[in-house]
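Quick check before the chapter quiz. The format below is the same one you will see on the exam, so make sure you can read both the input and the output lines.
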Amino acid sequence: MRRFLIINPRSDSGFVDFVNDSASAETPEQLQEVLRAQFPHAIVRLRNLDGEPFSAWYIYREGYWVSDEGGERAVPNG
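Here is the expected output.
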């Protein structure tokens, strides 16, 4: 099955390159383990939608979505 990586933040070219270089991992858990050696808060989550012809992995450097512009959290802690 084809894999589609949704990487956040896209503006961090070092992180994006590291993810792409590590994308041979077979499971989201394996990729997360590899990423955490360099980015300790990284999280990888599988999107699992019925009938989707590819596997989508959400990859967050900080463990949650951050803005490319200010590096701030999208949703305030509340």
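If your answer matched, good. Confidence is low (pLDDT under 50) at residues 73-78.
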